[in-house]
Design goal:
Blueprint: E1 5-12, E2 17-24, E3 38-46, E4 53-59, E5 69-74, H1 80-92, E6 106-113, E7 123-124, H2 127-135, H3 144-157, E8 162-167, H4 170-173, H5 178-181, H6 187-192, H7 202-216, E9 225-230, E10 234-240, E11 243-247, H8 270-274, H9 293-300, H10 305-308, H11 325-346, E12 353-357, H12 358-363, H13 365-374, H14 384-388, E13 397-399, E14 409-413, H15 417-427, H16 429-433
């Protein structure tokens, strides 16, 4: 079993599907870290909720191949399932891709599943695990439902491939203390209904702490950071000695920081004052995904888009910003400060770095500047020139803080959930032993 195998990492979002294909040899029995997967190609289908869908496809080793597509509209693609089928069809016709003759050449398909319940590690998707994940849909109806639909499509389209589920919750499940996991409600009722804090964006945070530790020339077990995954979905995480101590998200991804369409943490009674129909079933649900009016409002009709009319955060600092842009910007910065302050205390001030990641965290120098400006009292400081010129630098982790031996660093990490799934798969001897 020495020949390289193909690993397909699948990241299904609410309006997109990201796909990355890797090559990897089996884990070396004498090495604890396993083999790093080699990226072969990247593809995505976006705009699924605002058609036409847009398809991209790029060979990473050679960007000039004839099969590459920078941007192509797909008017007939309406869902994640359609997107995946289009990708497989295009893949099978790619004459420039020597490693693949058909989808059957893919050994592992790694799926990002947002809610994993009590699963502490990735699992092979079979009838038992799939049924358990379906039961969790009520805890994350807007997230697990489309992902599981794509899982079922993959099982049909790639019947010889080993499908593996990787969970946003697993990074937090083992290490988050019981008193942090627990909500102050009746314990028996909470346990019976799986009501507790789970935490999310764990695949991203696993990647971040691994890369930051390497950058700092420390072991993961010696690395403590406050990490901010800031995008349309946003969260903060306190990581102590390489493990999750706390995460701003909770029972569902709704708790914590506001997002593009999510309210984040609000007074629980707010929704009942907002609408008299909070408990009714929303018409925006589907046969496989029933959601209440309250869930629809707080998950899909809140966040900064409800105030400025767009999900595009970059518009806030554009030449023609929408009305109330300053309000939204200051609101977001304020909520981020709430978590940095709390997590700095929880980590007892032993923080190696404040790390920005995610689409907004990596792209908005104005946001980074405002956030760091507000936490200078904790020892964080920003190098303004470095912060505004990161596009000129190369590397997964970049330092944008002032150089100081005493101060914690301020870093940017280009997070990569697909690579993290492939890396974990490449290391996992259990999965490879079943081939």
């Amino acid at each position: 079993m020495s020949t390289a195998k193909l690993i397909l990492a699948i990241n299904a979002g609410s309006s997109s599907v990201k796909l990355s294909l890797y090559s990897s040899t089996p884990p070396d029995s004498e090495r604890k870290t396993g083999n790093a997967p080699c990226l072969i190609l990247q593809s995505s289908v976006s705009n699924l909720t605002s058609p036409p869908a847009v398809f991209s496809y790029t060979h990473t080793e050679n960007s000039s191949t004839s099969s590459n597509v920078k941007s192509k509209e797909l008017p007939d693609v309406k869902s994640q399932d359609d997107a995946f089928k289009h990708f497989l069809e295009y893949l099978s016709k790619d004459s420039d891709l020597k490693q693949v003759n058909s989808g059957e050449d893919i050994t592992f398909a790694c799926h990002r599943i947002v809610h994993g319940g009590d699963y502490e590690r990735p699992v092979v998707i079979n009838e038992k695990s799939l049924n358990y994940l379906k039961e969790l849909t009520d805890l994350a109806p807007l997230h697990n439902s489309p992902a599981l639909s794509l899982v079922q499509t993959t099982l049909k389209q790639l019947p010889k491939t080993t499908n593996i589920a990787y969970f946003d919750t697993s990074f937090h499940t083992l290490s988050m203390p019981e008193h942090i996991k627990t909500y102050p409600v009746n314990l028996e009722h909470a346990r019976r209904n799986k009501i507790r804090k789970y935490g999310f964006h764990g695949i991203s945070y696993s990647f971040i702490v691994t890369e930051v530790a390497e950058y700092l020339k420390k072991s993961v077990e010696e690395t403590s950071i406050i990490a901010l995954h800031l995008g349309s979905g946003a969260s903060a995480c306190a990581i102590r000695n390489g493990k999750s101590l706390d995460n701003s998200m909770g029972l569902t991804p709704l708790e914590g920081l506001p997002g593009a369409t999510r309210s984040g943490t609000v007074d629980p009674s707010l929704v009942f004052h907002y609408t008299s129909n909070a408990g009714r079933i929303s018409h925006s649900g589907t046969e496989d995904m029933q959601i209440s009016k309250a869930e629809e409002i707080l998950n899909k009709k809140s966040g900064w888009s409800s105030i400025i009319g767009t999900t595009d955060f970059s518009k806030l600092k554009s030449d023609s910003p929408p009305p109330h842009s300053e309000l939204v910007f200051d609101l977001f910065v304020d909520r981020i400060h709430n978590y940095i302050g709390a997590y700095f205390v929880k980590l007892r001030g032993k923080v190696d770095a404040l790390v920005f990641a995610g689409g907004i965290g990596e792209k908005s120098f104005e946001l980074r500047e405002a956030v760091v400006d507000g936490v200078q009292c904790l020892g964080f400081s920003l190098n303004k020139r470095a912060n505004e010129n990161i596009e000129k630098e190369n590397g997964i982790v970049l330092n944008i803080g002032e150089e100081s031996a005493r101060a914690p660093k301020v870093l940017i990490c280009s997070t990569d959930e697909q690579f993290e799934m492939a890396r974990e798969c490449a290391r996992d001897k259990e999965f490879w032993s079943k081939l």
